[in-house]
Amino acid sequence: MAKPIIAIVGRPNVGKSTLFNKLAGERISIVEDTPGVTRDRIYAEGEWLDKKFLLVDTGGIEIANDNSILKHIKEQAQIAIETASVILFVTDIRTGVTANDYDVATMLLKSGKPVVLVVNKCDTVGGVPDDIYEFYSLGLGDPFPVSSVHGHGTGDVLDEAFKHINWDEQEEENDEYIQVAVVGRPNVGKSSLVNALLGHERTIVSNVPGTTRDAIDSPFTWNDKEYTLIDTAGIRRKRSVEDETVERYSVIRSLAAIRRCDIALIVVDAERGLSEQDVRIAGYVHEEGKASVLIVNKWDLIEKDTYTAEKFKKKMLVDLAFMSYVPMLFISAKTGQRVNKVMELAEFAYEQNCTRISTGKLNDIISEAVTMNEPPVNAGRRLRVYYSTQAGIKPPTFIIFVNEPELMHFSYRRYLENYIRKSFEIKATPIRIIIRKRERSDTD
Ligand code: GDP
Ligand code: GDP
C-alpha cells in the first residue's frame, strides 16, 4: 500500500524538526538495520493508530545562503503542496503570527490542500493559552496547540491530519497497470529517457497554478503489456533557487513517485558519477522494497575500454553496498544505445520482486542452511530456528519463527537471507526477513 505523505512546513526555528522527531518516534530507523543506507532528516515512516504514513520535513533541506528566508519557505510549501496528502503548517506561540506566516498561509489556502495549523511551544499543560486566538487570523481554521518538546497535543494533530486522508483511495492506487517511475537528480537525462521509451516527445503540461501533481503519468506499451510511466521530470518549474537546493528538493519529489511505483528506474549521470542525492534516492527505493534498475546515462560521453563498465559497477557498489542486487545498465538516452534493454531489465526486476516460494520448499532450504551453519551460541543460549513462511511479495518477505528473536545476530540473519537468495535464485530485488518469536508449545 502506498503510504500517504504528511509534510511539515514552517519558518525556521518554530520547531519543525523537533515535531518531526516526535511524530516519527523510534521509527526513524526505517524498515531494517541495513548498513550503508543513508539516513537523513528529510523523511521517516510514522505510525499512528495502526496506520502508516510518510512524514516529510521540508525544512530538513538546508539552504546554502540565507538571503531570502521567505523565498525558501515558499519553495518548501510548494514542494509540500505538490507531494503531500496533508500539510502540517507549524507556527510558534512565542513569536506569534508573523508576516511570513501570513504569506505561507495564503499560499497553502490557495492550493486547496488540507492543512493542519500547528501552534508549537505551548508547553504549559492544561488550558489553552490566550495568545492562540490570534492564529485564527491565518484563515486556516482551528489552531492546534502543541509542545513538540514534551509531546503534548501531537496526537490531536495526527487525528486531525488523518481526517483528511482517504485511506481507501490509498489502497486502490496503482492497481491497474504496472507503474514505472523515472527518478533521479535534475539533468541526469530523465526526460530524455522518457521520450526515448515513449518513442516520442511527451507533452509537457504547463505548470497551471493549482495543479498539484508531483509527476506526469504517461501510458505506454512494452512487450504487449501496459505500463504507466511516472515522470518526475515532467513538471518543470523556474529555477528560483540555487542548483544545489533544486537537487535536494529532487529527492522529495522522487519520494512521492517512488512510493506509488512498482518499478523505479534510478537515473544517474555517468560523467558526474554517484552523488549523495543519488544514493539517497536509491536508498529510499531500497527501503520501500521496490524493484529497480540503476540506469547510468550519458554513456556516450565516457571514454571507454573493455573494463570501463566493470570498473564503474565496482565503484558504484561501494556506495550502494546496501543494494548490491540492483541491476545496472549503461545507456545513452541521446544516441539510443541500450535503451531497448531498459524495460527488459525492469520487467525482470519486477518479476523477481513478485517471487513466491512455497512454504515446503522454503522450510527445506532454511533447514539446510541451519544444518550447514548452526546459529552461534550467545551467552550460553542458542538461537533455534523453527519454521518460516512467505508473508508477501513486492518485495518477497519471509517470516522466520525462532525461540528468541534477540538471539538472531545481524550476520546470521544476513547469512539466511543470502542462502534464500542463492537457493531460489532471487536476483534484482530487495527481500525482507522478519524474525518472530514462536509461541510456546508442548514440543519445546
Ligand atoms: P526548525 O528550525 O523549525 O526545525 O526548529 P527546531 O526543531 O530546530 O527547533 C528550534 C528551537 O525551538 C530548538 O531550540 C528547539 O529545542 C525549540 N523547540 C522546539 N519545539 C519546542 C517546544 O515545543 N517547546 C519549546 N519550549 N521549545 C521548542
Ligand atoms: P532531466 O532533468 O533529468 O529530465 O534531464 P534531461 O533529459 O532534460 O537532460 C539534461 C541534459 O542532458 C540535456 O541537455 C540532454 O540533452 C542531455 N542528455 C540527456 N541524456 C543524454 C545522453 O545520453 N548523452 C548526452 N551526451 N547527453 C544527454
Q: In words, what does this structure look like?
A:
The protein has helices spanning 16-24, 69-83, 99-111, 154-163, 167-172, 190-198, 243-260, 276-287, 308-319, 339-353, 359-372, 410-424, and strands at 5-10, 43-48, 51-57, 86-92, 115-120, 143-145, 178-183, 216-222, 225-231, 263-269, 291-297, 328-330, 377-378, 381-382, 385-392, 397-402, 432-437. The protein has 444 residues and is α/β, with parallel strands linked by helices. It has a 6-stranded mixed β-sheet, with helices on both faces. Strands 8-9-7-10-11-12 form a 6-stranded mixed β-sheet, sandwiched between helices. A 3-stranded mixed β-sheet has the order 15-16-17, with helices on one face. Strand 11, helix 9 and strand 12 (328-330) form a beta-alpha-beta unit. Helix 2 (69-83) packs parallel to helix 3. It binds guanosine-5'-diphosphate (GDP) (2 copies). Residues 10, 12-18, 59, 120-121, 123, 147-149 line the site of one guanosine-5'-diphosphate.
In short:
The chain is an alpha/beta fold and 444 residues long. It has helices at 16-24, 69-83, 99-111, 154-163, 167-172, 190-198, 243-260, 276-287, 308-319, 339-353, 359-372, 410-424, and strands spanning 5-10, 43-48, 51-57, 86-92, 115-120, 143-145, 178-183, 216-222, 225-231, 263-269, 291-297, 328-330, 377-378, 381-382, 385-392, 397-402, 432-437.
